Amino acid sequence: MRAAHLAALTTLPSCVWRLLLAAGFSMGYQPEWMAANASSAADRVYLVALSLVTEGLALLTLGLVRPWGERLPSWVPAIGGWRVRPLAAVVPASIGAVALVLLWSLNPLLYTDLFHDPLEPQGGWQLLMATAYLPLVLWGPLLGLVTWAYYRRRCTDR
Fold it and tell me: Where are the transmembrane segments (predicted)?
């Protein structure tokens, strides 16, 4: 239960960071970067949508420990009340966990020049950004742990 809640919370700091960018706060980025990446309406919609989708996906982890992960709520149109087949949750969650581990474990290697770009946040802003994105490294392993527990609970001991 705790791992599921932690997994859902790992995305929150980076989502807040992006939402503040979408709201027009520079977050330490230089004006040239802001003009190219966060000034148009499309840029802002993208930042908000990315944050909402990210947090929504992270919140799905809770389905692996809550009753709605075993039986769909009655308010869901057409399929409400149906039993969730365990592999219908385990397979996408496992793929997601592996993808997240690969994405966030390789991330430092892909962005080694991040802190050398003069348009990127520097100093305290750099530290704040790293602090906001660092919890994402835990998202994949936590999702994997919760998925394994769900699998063991739903698919074994029959």
Answer: 46-65, 86-107, 127-151
User: Alpha-carbon distance 143 to 150, whole Å?
Assistant: 10
> Which pTM value belongs to this model?
0.87
Query: Residues 130-151: pLDDT tens digits?
Result: 889 989 999 999 999 999 999 9
Distance CA 126, CA 29 (A): 9
**pLDDT tens-place string over residues 84-135:** 999 999 999 999 999 999 988 876 655 555 556 777 787 888 889 888 998 9
DSSP 123-157: THHHHHHHHHHTTHHHHHHHHHHHHHHHHHHHHS-
Cβ pair 141, 97 in contact under 8 A: yes
Tell me the three state secondary structure of residue 158. coil
Q: What's at 121, amino acid-wise?
A: P
Q: Is 32 exposed, middle or buried (0-12, 13-18, 19+ CB in 10 A)?
A: exposed
Q: What is the DSSP letter of 71?
A: B
